[in-house]
Amino acid sequence: MRTRIFGARVIDPASGLDQVSDLYLDGGKIVAIDQAPAGFIADKTIDASGLIASPGLVDLSVALREPGYSRKGSIASETLAAAAGGVTSLCCPPLTKPVLDTSAVAELILDRAQEAGHAKVFPIGALSKSLAGEQLAELVALRDAGCVAFGNGLAPMANNRTLRRALEYAATFDLTVVFHAQDADLAEGGLAHEGPTASFLGLAGIPETAETVALARDLLLVEQSGVRAHFSQLTSARGAEMIAAAQARGLPVTADVAMYQLILTDEALQGFSSLYHVQPPLRAARDRDGLREAVKNGVIGAIASHHQPHEADAKLAPFGATEPGISSVELLLPLALTLVQDGLLDLPTLLARLTAGPAKALRLPAGRLAVGAPADLLLFDAEAQTLAGETWYSKGGNSPFIGHCLPGKVRYTLVDGRISYQG
Question: What sequence ranges are listed for the domain Dihydroorotase catalytic (predicted)?
Fold first, then answer.
């Protein structure tokens, strides 16, 4: 299928391209930008006048829930939701049942993702067997099966010695380790950020030090082992400062933040709505502002949805008894565009944090518009608006943003030159 896309403002943060151009796609790849190749005759033409063309979004954390949690979501439903949010490449965490700690689970996920065809899936394998933190998973076998990085989520390793050995082993094979910096002892029993809001509501608090103490340890071990490290789901301004200091020392460290952490604060918990129950928790306004600044200056190079769909019952109990997480991947682009609307970021910088930044962090073959690159791209109308929830593809309706009018609208998502979503 040969496709010509004409009239769009083409923005490629990886190369700095920002101009009105035509795009020519053939064989699943971009074969030319601006000028048609000799003898090119399009089978399909897309009029993108007034639209923005960018690389497809790259989301570093989308829980697909399959295998094991089909009541919450499936690979087919959640990758379609991702495509509706403009995402063409996504990483799924190892929190499945069985845990993503064997080649068989990785291959099952990849086979079903390919069968669904909505988005490219890059699994993150478990760092330890069953995420128990005691024995190292078969990292090289998982890498060979398609895993692009390894992590233990919020589940702690048994002790610092085990963690150190895991990092040294990963460094030996040039594997990337994904950290979720939260000290399990300091966070135990906590439901909300430790501060005035939690005190007023009578909710057990999780202090900022739950993140920063774990982060300090992890950064020291990263420095000692030389492993490539990605810190996922930062929540505190102080944590972002620590990442900046590590990067200034030359450590191979990258970081991402959940999209909702750049919008919401712990004050959203005032009504005890379980839709705002997330782990790690929403923090104070100063933390949100510090995270925003770190995104702006590039210390945090990636914004991710940290999509966690749940069935309705999971959010119906009293706040403390509900399951944490927000279903948000199909709103990733509209939510992100609020940062442009608020004047925090210009559009090319925002797109860099959603495409080239995350792709670079985990060394994914994605996130750029260039001749010879896969034709994974997004066409969106920055002037239109999205009524969140008007259409909804995820099995999880646990989103506090449903019903909100958000800027921007995804018109086309293309994967390998094929339309995977049209809105």
Answer: 54-236
Which is nearest to 401 in space by CA: 354, 314, 331? 331
Task: Please give the torsion angle defined by the CA atoms of residues 392, 393, 396 and 400, in that order, rounded to the nearest 10 degrees.
Answer: -30
Length of the chain in terms of residues written:
423
Q: Please state, in angstroms and rounded to a whole number, the distance separating the CA atoms of residues 239 and 210.
A: 10
Average pLDDT (279-298) is 98
CA–CA separation, 227 vs 291, rounded Å? Answer: 24
- What is the band of 8 on the pLDDT scale with cuts at 50, 70, 90? very high
Contacts of 7 (CB under 8 A, 6+ apart): 20, 22, 47, 48, 49, 50, 51
Contact call for residues 315 and 274 (beta carbons, < 8 A): yes
The tens digit of pLDDT for each residue in 309-337 reads 999 999 999 999 999 999 999 999 999 99
Mean pLDDT of the 9-18 span: 97
CATH of 2-52+374-422, picked from 2.30.40.10, 1.20.58.1000, 3.40.50.720, 3.40.50.1820, is: 2.30.40.10
Residues 72, 310: contact at Cβ < 8 Å? yes
Structure tokens at 195: 């501060």
**Is the omega angle on the peptide bond into residue 98 within 30 degrees of 0, that is, cis?**
yes
